[in-house]
Amino acid sequence: MESTEASATDTGAHPADGSPEESVSWTELVAEIQSGDASAMEEFYRRLSKGIRFYLCRQLGPQDLDDRLHDTFLIAVQAIRRGELREPERVMGFVRTVVRRQVAAYIDTVVHSRKEQADLESGASVTDSRGDPESVAIARQQEEIMTKVLRSISGRDREILTRFYLREQTQQQICDEMNLTETQFRLLKSRAKARFGELGRRQLVRKNRPLSDLT
Amino acid sequence: METGKHTDIELLERYAMETLPEEVLAELEEHLLICSSCQERLAEAEDFVRVFRKVAPGLRVERPSPIEKLRFLWARIFVLPRPVWAGAFAVLALLVVAATQWSIRPAGRERVMVALSAARGVPVDAPETVAPSGRLLTLTIDLTQLPPFPEHRLEVADATGKAVWHSAVRAEDGKIVSPIPHGLDRGVYFVRLSGVSGVNGAELLREYALRVE
Questions:
Q1: Closest Cβ opposite residue B9 in set A14, A95, A150
Q2: Tell me, what's the ipTM?
Q3: Conformational region of residue B43, where left means phi above 0, alpha means psi within -120 to 50, and beta covers everything else
Q4: 3 state SS of B179
């Protein structure tokens, strides 16, 4: 959850903290991978594994995450070694494309296998999507916190948040229709989120780790 | 978006809500591949959006009913010290005497005129127009600085955005004077004025905040 300090000033781009980690010459790294340098492949994995894992988990869930990560990495490295990356400086775009194709392929496989499973004798097994009791309890606590936050703000502020998060209106449209400046709009959102985060830190022991911790 | 710079929070929120335009989607996802800070911020944004969407639609902001208030007060009375009791009885006695000396007029059902105004650049927490609950209200709006329309439409929405009343209205002498046929419960409302033309339909002109208490 966002820190109060960050939210209070988060009306624009977040100040850089040196990320993406150290500056790296992707062109040189790609060249070393193409030459078969094992340490370059380790470096490539170190820099990208967290991000690829993050993306795969968001799209496909936490099941078999390690296997999928390794498959994706292998495909990307093999493609680089075969010379399929024509512009080494665009390696991020290349990796993104590989990851997206992996996601699409997996979804296609799941859809296909469900269609083919016609075992009427045993019936269909359906996974309980509710999650374990711990995550259910955490979700309930988060909803209670959100209820508390929303009840503590004015109706106008609630209207603004509803327009953005539920009706998906743009910032510009909301500001125009409700006579707000961009700064007022951003401050309102960051205040609500900071309050949510602050109450969450006080009340929750988050055992169900956020996606970014799954590395 | 340069890969050396972090992502604007609004872009992350729109990505979390899957409303990000295609032209920036690729750049954002490439940045997320290598920036753990933005990954964390995205996870936080997704948490907030998910829980907000779960809670907000069903949220009813209710004020305590008169019975609940009485219960609360009744529970508090018995912890008051004796001098407070004595003082309370004395005040009560004075009120009884006063009531026998003067007649108390019952509250009238005459309408309350409510003049709505809006100004650009007003802070978010600026006071809204206030009107009494349980009374019949007549809304008045000055159209002087607004573009002319052959017809107008007024809508009153509650704090959750649900319309509680609407009507077509006509302007006279540069003003709209529109009675609401029923009283409003306590709460915050938004009065939306739209101009109606045959070509473009309804166009939102102004939104006014109205607190009924």
A1: A14
A2: 0.75
A3: alpha
A4: strand
**pLDDT tens readout for residues A17-65:** 444 445 668 999 999 999 999 999 999 999 999 999 999 998 888 888 9
Please tell me which residue of chain A has the smallest CA distance to B205.
A177
The pLDDT-based confidence of B200 (bands split at 50, 70, 90) is low
3-class DSSP state of B199: coil
Residue-by-residue DSSP string for B51-115: HHHHHGGG----PPPHHHHHHHHHHHHTTS-HHHHHHHHHHHHHHHHHHHHS--PPPP---EEEE
Q: How far apart are CA A5 and CA B141, in angstroms?
A: 42
SS3 B190: strand
pTM, to two decimals: 0.54
The pLDDT of A102-108, averaged and rounded, is: 89
Q: Which residue has the tokens 């009913």?
A: B65
d(CA A41, CA A49): 11
A64 touches chain B (CB under 8 A): no
CB B152 within 8 A of CB B170: yes
A185, A11 contact by CB (below 8 A):
no
H helices within chain A, ranges in order? Answer: 4-9, 26-34, 38-60, 65-81, 91-116, 133-152, 155-161, 171-178, 182-203
A48-62, A159-173, B119-133, B155-169: which has the minimum mean pLDDT?
Answer: B119-133
Asked whether the beta carbons of residue B52 and residue A13 sit closer than 8 angstroms, the reply is no
In the stretch 77-136 of chain A, residues with CB closer than 8 A to chain B read: 92-93, 95-96, 99
Q: Between these two residues, B41 and B108, which has the higher pLDDT value?
A: B41
Rg (CA), chain B: 26
B207 → closest Cβ in A143, A177, A210: A177
Q: Chain B contact for A20, CB < 8 A?
A: yes
Q: Running DSSP on this structure, what letter comes out for residue A213?
A: G
**What would the pLDDT profile of A154-208 be if each residue is shown by its tens digit?**
888 889 999 999 998 888 999 999 999 989 998 988 888 888 888 877 765 554 5
